[in-house]
Amino acid sequence: MQKKWIVLILGSFFINLLVEAQPRQDSLRLTLPEAEKMFLDSNYQLLAARYNIDASKALIIQARLWPNPNFSIGHTLYSGTLKQFFPLGVNDETTAGLSQLILLAGKRNKQVKLAQAGAQLTEYQFFDLMRTLKYTLRTDFFQIYYLQQSAKVYDEEIRALQQIVHAFNEQAGKGYIAEKEVIRIRAQLYSFQSEYSDLLVQINAVQSELRLILQAKPSVFINPATDSMVLDKLDPTQFPMTTLMDSAYRNRTDLQIARTNTNISRLNYDYQKALAVPDLSLSVGYDEAGSFLNNYVGIGASIDLPFFNRNQGNIKSAKVQIASALASQKSTQATVEENVSASLQKAFAQDKLYRTIDPKFQGDFQRLLHEVVTNYQKRNISLLDFLDFYDSYKQNTLQLNSIQLNRVSAFEDINYYTGTNFFN
To answer: pLDDT digit string (tens) for 338-377?
Structure first.
């Protein structure tokens, strides 16, 4: 039994060293709107995605361009008759030609439509990235807030137990306090310190993720500021299911991406069919003295004969891709419908649980906590009653914070799955 207490004491000693060794950080207090503005202004992932939009729009310009004309010119290099390089005058021969490729079957317009659809897809991908990062930001924001509320409970209980241990140490050897009681209090203190250390590790992990989203410096500790009255007014009955579903159909960027991919598949199918039609090449030629008459100028046209390659494989592949894109779109739509329905049910369940909690519960528990500490110090209650109340206070407070976090997270899920900030 003594070995158990020794292990607890040594473990707490090292935990204290780790907690005290944490680097000093600058605290940055942010409201949720301030955090979102900081995110939109400075996130590098969004910046890179914006560049991708500009790059895809440049491809539309490229698709609108006509093929360049081709110009060729030739001159006699060596005359075998005259034994002369580059003969001039009546003994030379010069030819020239100009040709232009004419795209048939609307290939150019189809290329433009494909490029426009690709640019639209890039924009939807940008907004989907923004939606995902914004959801992570908001959930991290509230998670940090409620974890900090739980950390305050540990901090308060640890301080109170440290005061009691300090008072016991001052009375050591006087016979007023049983040694086993002192060891039990210290063990409880070390247990709280260990749990507190684990909670700090969890907070720091979420802090790290939030700093990356906001592009804040590693030395910054983000301190979320929330309005409890606003959060308390959140109501899942505020918007009917039809409104939420309609919003998801219009604004879910992953659904927009699926629809755009289907459209791109159809456009590609049309383009591949157009590629089966050969293009026409028109030309003008000049021959100084090599034809049946001098200074010959002629026009010509050329076109491939589609006997063997009529782009059959690419056309068949494009047609199959349409079916694949449609199946993916239907799957995404089914996922959207299920997401919205499940998130609303979750919000109803979490809100109902939250409403069962007496608003005075936390305040009454807080007041009783100080009275219990005072009564224990005065020896009016037993050690077991004191530790039992302390543990109950901690567990109930942590559970209350967890309930509140789960409730807010459920409303954030609705925002995410509908693509609209119905609840702020």
So the answer is: 999 999 999 999 999 999 887 766 666 666 666 776 776 6
Show the tokens assigned to 17: 């060293």
**Residue 116 belongs to what H/E stretch?**
helix 107-170
Structure tokens at 85: 């390089």
**Residue 125's closest CA among 40, 53, 60?**
53
Cα distance between residue 257 and residue 341, in whole Å: 21
Give the up-direction half-sphere exposure of residue 376: CA atoms within 13 A in the CB hemisphere.
Answer: 25
CB 279 within 8 A of CB 301: no
Q: How many CB atoms lie within 10 A of CB 275?
A: 19
Q: How far is CA 30 from CA 41, 93, 327, in A?
A: 15, 82, 43
Per-residue DSSP letter, 238: G
> In Å, what is the CA distance from 77 to each residue of 85, 87, 288, 353?
6, 8, 15, 94
Instruction: Report helix, strand or coil for 311.
Output: coil
> Taking the alpha carbons of 346, 347, 348, 354 in that order, is the dihedral positive or negative?
positive
- Cα distance between residue 387 and residue 397, in whole Å: 15
State pLDDT tens for residues 13-64: 444 544 444 455 688 999 999 999 999 999 999 999 999 999 999 999 999 9
Task: Return contacts of 84-93, CB within 8 angstroms, 24+ apart.
Answer: 92/288, 92/289, 93/288, 93/289, 93/290
Give 186 or 35, the one with higher predicted confidence: 35
Runs of H (alpha helix) within 235-302: 241-251, 253-275
**Alpha-carbon gap, residue 53 to 121, rounded angstroms:** 9
What are the helix and strand counts (H, E) for the chain? 11, 8
Instruction: Determine the longest span between alpha carbons in the chain, in angstroms.
Output: 132
Q: How confident is the model at residue 163 (pLDDT cuts 50, 70, 90)?
A: confident
Q: Are 161 and 189 in contact (CB under 8 A)?
A: yes
Other beta carbons within 10 angstroms of residue 116's beta carbon come to 17
